[in-house]
From TrEMBL:
Protein name listed in UniProt: ABC transporter permease
Main localization of the protein described in the UniProt heading: membrane
BP term (GO), one: transmembrane transport
Keyword list, A-Z: Cell membrane, Membrane, Transmembrane, Transmembrane helix, Transport
Family: Belongs to the binding-protein-dependent transport system permease family.
The ABC transmembrane type-1 domain, residue ranges: 119-311
Length: 323
């Protein structure tokens, strides 16, 4: 007799396993996380959340349109920049028509073309100021928060001096003093940046002070990591989120500040075009012809609102407590 056990007849509850009916192996942890859409980091988690926020999508579309308008104005108007600066006094304050959708201003200039070309300078000033304040304030805040001691004390006292200066008043003084030095729109960028970087400094410093007491930073120091590696490899990635949020919100504020300076006569100067300068030129005849003021004001408000809405959405996505 053979010692090999013989297979018995299949009972009613017995199922023969085939490649088609055999249960598949459970998905790996990585595949399961990808399938379920679970993020692997704070940034992917924030992006996963932002894509489901209507406010973020709406503001993103508005900002994209405005950026395209700034870099490629020819997509929105067939009038070239030189013709946009050419005015016909005989046609001053004419209403909207097929050839001039927003009508003409007090000098007979095409309001629609000037509104399109005005987006370039206004957004350029806002973006440039935001980048400068984020880099300067963020870097100084990173150094002060990491080193502490005398470095932190001295830099904090310096920022308090800047906080004591009203931003618009200080920018008004700087632009009025240096506007004849041939700097053009960049004097507005410099004036706003000089007075706005301390806010970014304080936010970065506070975030770094919070992060430097975490276990991963203490472990990096214990393993002999250099100061620069701790700053840029561990502290900066974990402290940059609030700076990004504040910078996004501040961008809209810088655009509004440029409009205020141009309205007061010390910002963008002719023959350059900006929304603030258009509002200033149209205010004297507002009751007779309101449209030359209304249209750039509406575009300015929409732009500021779009960046503020995006900043609020990014803040909510990066802060788990607000979800």
């Amino acid at each position: 007799m053979s010692d090999t056990p013989q297979a018995g007849p299949a009972g009613p509850d017995t199922q023969t396993l085939t490649p088609e009916t055999a249960p598949s192996a459970p998905p790996s942890r990585g595949r399961r996380r990808k399938k379920e859409g679970k993020p692997a980091s704070l940034w992917t988690d924030a992006w996963h959340d932002l894509r489901r926020r209507p406010m973020f999508i709406f503001s993103l579309v508005l900002i994209a349109i405005l950026l395209i308008m700034s870099f490629w104005p020819s997509l929105f108007t067939s009038i070239n920049p030189l013709d946009a600066r050419t005015c016909d006094l005989a046609s001053a304050r004419q209403g909207p028509s097929a050839g001039h959708l927003f009508g003409r201003d007090n000098l007979g200039c095409d309001v629609y073309a000037r509104t399109i070309f005005g987006a370039s300078n206004s957004i350029l000033i806002g973006v440039s100021t935001t980048i400068i304040t984020a880099v300067v304030g963020g870097l100084l805040g990173l150094i002060a928060g990491t080193r502490g001691g005398v470095t932190d004390t001295v830099s904090s006292r310096i920022t308090e001096v800047f906080f004591a200066i009203p931003q618009i008043l200080g920018a008004l003084l700087i632009t009025a003093t240096f506007r004849d030095k041939g700097l053009g729109i960049w004097i507005v960028v410099i004036a706003l940046s000089v007075l706005a970087w301390p806010m970014t400094f304080r936010i970065m410093r506070a975030a770094v002070i919070t992060a430097r007491s975490q276990d991963f930073v203490i472990a990096a120091r214990a393993l002999g990591a250099s100061q620069s590696r701790i700053m840029f490899g561990h502290l900066l990635p974990n402290a940059i989120a609030p700076v990004i949020v504040v910078s996004t919100i501040n961008l809209g504020g810088f655009i509004a500040a440029e409009a205020a300076l141009s309205f007061l006569g010390v910002g963008v100067q002719s023959p350059d075009i900006s929304w603030g300068l258009m509002i200033a030129d149209a205010r004297s005849r507002f009751l007779e012809a309101p449209l030359p003021l209304v249209f750039p004001a509406v575009f300015l408000s929409i732009t500021v609102l779009a960046f503020i809405m995006m900043g609020d959405a990014v803040r909510d996505a990066l802060d788990p407590k607000l979800r």
